Amino acid sequence: MLRCEICGKQADKHHIVYRCQGGVDFPLNFRYLCSEHHRGKNGPHKSRKLDLEYKLEMQKSLENLLYKDYYNLDELVGLLEINKGMLKRLLKEYKLYKEGYRSSDIVYRLMGKKRYTEDMLEEYYDFIVNF
Ligand SMILES: [Zn+2]
Ligand SMILES: [Zn+2]
User: Fold this and answer.
1) Which ligand is in closest contact with the Cα of 36?
2) Distance of CA 58 from the midpoint of ligand 1 (Å)
3) pLDDT digit string, tens, across residues 49-62
4) HEC states along the chain?
5) CA of 65 to the centre of ligand 1 (A)
6) How much is the pLDDT for 131?
7) Number of structural domains, the chain?
8) How far apart are CA 61 and CA 30, in angstroms?
9) Residue range 4-21, pLDDT digits in tens
10) How many angstroms separate the alpha carbon of residue 125 from the centre of ligand 2?
11) What is the spatial distance between Cα 9 and Cα 118, in angstroms, rounded to a whole number?
C-alpha cells in the first residue's frame, strides 16, 4: 500500500505537473498523498500556493540533478528513471547538440513547457492581500 508522505494514511499518486499540463510519468513528478492531502482544501488541487510550491521544489530537484549543461538520452534514462522511448518523443522538438540535449530544455519540457519562479508565489500572496 502506498502511504501519504504527510500523514501516512493510504495514498494515491499525485502528478506534480499534471498530465493535462504536459506532466510525465517518472518518479520526480510523483507525490504520494492521501485523499485529504491530495484533493482536500489543503491539497495541491485546491491550494494554488501548495501546487506552486510542489512545482518549484520539483524544478529545483531537476536543476540540481541535471547540473551539467548537456545530457544524452541514456544518461537521462538512468538519472530520471524515465522511459526512453517516451523521453525521446518528448525531446524531439529540441535541438540535439553533439554533447546531448541542453539541460535547460530538458527541465523546461519536464515541467510542462513552463519555467516556474519564486515570483509566482509572491504574486499569489499579493493577490491574497489585495483581495
Ligand atoms: Zn495525508
Ligand atoms: Zn493529483
Assistant:
1) 1
2) 19
3) 999 999 999 999 99
4) CCECCCCCCECEEEECCCHHHCCCCCHHHEEEECHHHHHCCCCCCCCHHHHHHHHHHHHHHHHHHCCCCEECHHHHHHHHCCCHHHHHHHCCCCCEECCEEEHHHHHHHHCCCCCCCHHHHHHHHHHHHHC
5) 27
6) 47
7) 1
8) 12
9) 999 999 999 999 999 999
10) 23
11) 31
Residue 114 has pLDDT above 60, yes or no: yes
Contacts of 117 (CB under 8 A, 6+ apart): none
Residues linked to residue 12 through DSSP beta bridges, in sequence order:
33
Residue that has been written with the C-alpha cell 489585495 in this structure: 130
Q: Residue 3 falls within a domain, yes or no? A: no
Domain coverage including residue 78: 12-130
Q: Which residues contact 12 (CB under 8 A, 6 or more apart)?
A: 2, 32, 33, 34, 35, 38
